[in-house]
Amino acid sequence: MLFLQRISKGMVYPIVVYGDPVLRQRAKDIEPGTDVKQLIDDMYETMHHAQGIGLAAPQIGKSVRLFVVDGTGLEKDDDEAEDLSDFKKAFLNPVMLEELGDAWEFEEGCLSIPNIREKVSRKDTVRIRYYDEQWNVKEEEYDGMKARVIQHEYDHIEGKLFIDYLTPLKKRLLKGKLTDISRGDVRTEYRILAPLRK
Ligand code: NI
Question: Interior CA angle at 48 toward 44 and 53, to 5°?
């Protein structure tokens, strides 16, 4: 068997899971010009290891306004799947300028809430301002799945999680599973940091 090994530049952090207060804080801006190269490499490495397509800094325990996305490794197994092969970047100090268009539902998951997937309704299009890795300011518009990934990750740096959008009934039904997750009582393919693990 042949393995193509990616050259790894970063280290893999454990993923902070539901119940940790860092996931509920509004993250702080990073001083522009700060060297964030290693942090971004580590975030990509951690995200790839956990097979996610988005990761926000609070999910590795750092309450700063930074998230990374990477849809380039997604298998395109059906024609319906949106092309995300050019969607790999870091968003630093992002500001959501506008969310517009019709809302649509999609079943979301989150590395910090393992093994739970629920439908979330979000608007189709976002306009966002952010710094790239070289601290250049960008202002861009995204729609469809890219917009959704951005909205989900942006929520993380605002201290928000996708389960916040569920009805009280749905949330009640998930309560036991969420408690298990907080205790580290959940099966994952990646290392987690569970706040209530004994
Ligand atoms: Ni998430």
Answer: 85
Cα 149 to ligand 1 centre (Å): 9
pLDDT digits (tens, 9 = 90+) for 159-192: 999 999 999 999 999 999 999 999 999 999 999 9
Cα of 144 from ligand 1 centre, angstroms: 17
Residue that is written with structure tokens 């454990």 in the block: 14
Q: Which CATH architecture has domain 15-193?
A: Alpha-Beta Complex (3.90)
**54-56 and 66-70 strand pairing:** antiparallel
Q: Is 78 helix (H, G, I), strand (E, B) or coil?
A: coil
Segments of the chain with pLDDT less than 50? none
Q: Which residues contact 165 (CB under 8 A, 6 or more apart)?
A: 120, 121
Catalytic residue annotation: 153
pTM: 0.93
Q: Are 181 and 18 in contact (CB under 8 A)?
A: yes
